[in-house]
C-alpha cells in the first residue's frame, strides 16, 4: 500500500538491558498469552493454536480508562531467542520484541512500526476517543517502557535456564 508523508508514522522504540540470558527472556516475550502481565494497555489475550509460531493469530482486549477495544494480531516473525513480531489487523502496525545477547544478559527492544501507515479508522478513533495521535503516541512509549521493566523484573527473578 502506498503512503504519503502525512500518513507515515514514526518508529516507536524502547530498549532495556536485562541480567538474564536470551533463552529466559524469549520464554517470556514469546508467550503472547501473558501480554497482559506486562503491557499496561492489554487486559487479556486469547491465542488461537499452540505453540505460538509464525502465522499464529491472537486477540487482545485493550483498555484505557473506561474505554475497551479488541484487536486481532498475526505473528509475522518468529525467530527463537532473537525476534517475535506481530501485525495488528485493525491499525496495520507491527509490534516486535528483539533480543540481543550481551556480556551479562540480554538487550531487549520493543518496537512499533507502521510500514503501511496507520489505518484511517484507527487514526480517526485515536483522534476522537484517545486524545489524538501525539497524546496516544506518548502513552504508547510510556507503556513500552513499563512493559520492558515488567519483563525485566520477571526475567531477573527467575533462575537461569540450563
From TrEMBL:
Species this chain originates from:
Nocardioides koreensis
Query: Which InterPro entries does the protein's record reference?
Result: Polyketide_cyclase/dehydratase (IPR019587), START-like_dom_sf (IPR023393)
Name of the protein: SRPBCC family protein
Alphabetical list of Gene3D superfamilies matching this protein: 3.30.530.20
Domain of life (superkingdom): Bacteria
